[in-house]
Amino acid sequence: MLIASQMEPTYARRVYPCFDEPAMKATFDIRIVHDPSYVALSNMPAIDVSEMKDENGSLWAVTTFNTSLKMSTYLTAFVVCDFDYVTRTERGNKIRIWARKEAIGNGYLDYALNITGPIFSFLEDVLNVSYPLSKTDLVALPVFGAGGMENWGLMTFQEPSLMYLPSDKFTSRKAMITLIVSHELGHQACGKKFFTMNWWNDLWLNEGLASYFEYLGAIFVDPKLSLDKIFYDHVVQPVLSEDNEIVRSLSESEDKIKGSFSLTSLFDSITYNKGASITWMLSGFLTEKLFIRALSSYLKEFSFSNANQDDLWTHIQMVIDAQDEVQLPASVKQIMDSWTRQNGFPVLTLNLSTGTIRQEQFLDKKNRRNTDPNNNTWIIPISWMRNGSSQPLMWLDKSSKVFPEMQVLESEYDWILLNVNLSGYYRVNYDQLNLKRLAHVLESDPKAIPAVSRFQLISDVFALTQFGYVQIETALELTKYLAREDELFIWNMVLLNLVPENLESTLKNYEVYPLLKKYLLKRMLPIYHYYAGFIHKNVDALEDDYFAQAYLEKLFATACWLGLQDCLDLSSELYAKWMDNPEYEIPFLIRGTVCCYGVAVGSDKEWNFAWEMYTHTDSTEEDKDVLLSAMSCAKESWLLYRYLQYGLGDTLFSSNCTSTVILNVVAKDIGHRMAWEFVTENWPLLSERYGQELLHDVLKVMGRFVNTDVQIQELQVFYNDTLEEDEREATTLLLESTKSENIERRKLLIKVASWLEKNVDD
């Protein structure tokens, strides 16, 4: 039994009567009556535990907590549990981390305990504030909807966000724990004690600042992590890809939110990731020193009261006006409103021969609806480099402007790079002249361009291709240098664009595959062999390589998919080792690939072993997922057919596995017809078990293979027999749009193939 509360955004009203608005603050007196064998926790320290009897004579414990400081309703919290804790005191603040007894006993919470105090102190020092509570509890909950919640004095987390197993050698788990703990402590240090947003439309300020401090705190406790790369890879990059589809700005008016959004929908990547990216950019052009100075004065003034974003801009303005190192082209409010009150973000286009930069909103040009320009302009800080040396920051404050410094005529080798290290929240489009020169630099001396900027060049150029700003050939030119690229996070960005997982089987069907194979393998060999060396000799040496833990699997999977013999041999060799000795552990970093290709290269013997290990009682959820997927890698159709049949017999599979089996098989090049026939033959049974949802999922995957009207009709006939009328319409629309996507993709692949044909031997 366990009770834990989650009040944000509007659930306090379900627990006690209140005006449940962030701007209304009160002190809270909390008393909890509970079973005596359990412990009760709340925001404040317990000051008394007494006993009482109810009318049946049963004994209850009564825990009374100290009166809280003034705070918002959504930060009140309580937990009633039979957990154990580990503890240490940092600057008079008693920190306890609570979890299930066996987890505490096994030392799973020690890592979180070791970092919590130091991050707390670090944030207090940076912001020049002191934490007003005498205790802080962090609780690891077996089931919890969010990663963490910053209730003041009683933070709650899902177990994986706090638990680090001593046997787990990899930093990627540590990094995740560090970031989540650091994020919630960022709230404690700078948000909650002091100010709360006036209303939910300024939520981004809370979360954006916490996300900014999350990275500062994490760098402090673990300097080995290349957090700038992780920040751009996990935060900035993903939200740039989503920000066109989400139709809201960071800070909407209250009326608009009340009219058209649910509050919970505000807890999205715009609020967290765009909020953090914009804060990072702000700190960049102000300098960290001035930004922190302004924040610290802001927090002092709004201690225990409510603030909105304009209050923060005022404080930053005061700090800017009091010094003369940093000059801004407009007021802080004007600059920041252009980023927080408009949807989307800009793309800058540089013309090298005239030195002109123009800006426009980054929109999908292939999508006709987007052609009416809304003339949004942003006030944009431009960090830039010329021929590898950094230049003074420039500002673009209108739709276009000539920068004489950027006019490059002299030598054919002069190049310019904008938005160095992705310090601004925008994309960059270069003219052909500069792109040619950048491609030349990449081929002759890739390290002349910083790693984050190489990552961004590739990411920008593929996004520009996708949205119709440039041709695919332009993007491909920038991949020629890759044999000299040793950063995995950059390779990952390339592979996500050239070999997206959901297209692997589609790519196999076309003439593009043999060309891609030759072109990519030639460039992948150096980085592949570098990492294969560790897999052969000493995989533990990678325990501090964060990106190897995140992305090595994709690199190896692609190498095997492209038919690299060494990769296929390595997979069968490690898989055979496991078959000889089930105690042997396949290197965690490439386990999925090894199991998949172990089965693919093998026969029914290898497949049967995977099945046997799957049905083993002590295999973990993670093992089961890997094996479920691996069994669909079989290359013999009878094995796949038998696998689908096993999926129907509900003895061994929990119900949600059958649909996973079908979806795994349907995504494979030899499996998609078979899985489709299997679904149609067994539909009465499947529909009774899984209903329409399974059909939808299968349809999405099948859709990738639909290229002709005849194929659409075939799917349509089946759907017309099985679906209700309203669902039929939706399905028809889905199929039609999928077909046109496929036709577009076909055109694109023909272009890619003809470019590869010309360049495959370079």
TrEMBL record:
Q: Where is the active site?
A: 184 (proton acceptor)
Please give the cofactor(s) recorded in the UniProt entry for this protein.
Answer: Zn(2+)
Q: Which family does it belong to?
A: Belongs to the peptidase M1 family.
> What gene name does this entry carry?
Lvrn
Protein name according to UniProt: Aminopeptidase
Record: residues binding Zn(2+):
183, 187, 207
Location within or outside the cell: Membrane
Q: Which CDD domains match?
A: M1_APN-Q_like
What is the organism of origin for this protein? Mionectes macconnelli (McConnell's flycatcher)
Q: Which GO terms describe its biological process?
A: peptide catabolic process; proteolysis
Domain ERAP1-like C-terminal residue range list: 415-726
Classification of source organism: Eukaryota, Metazoa, Chordata, Craniata, Vertebrata
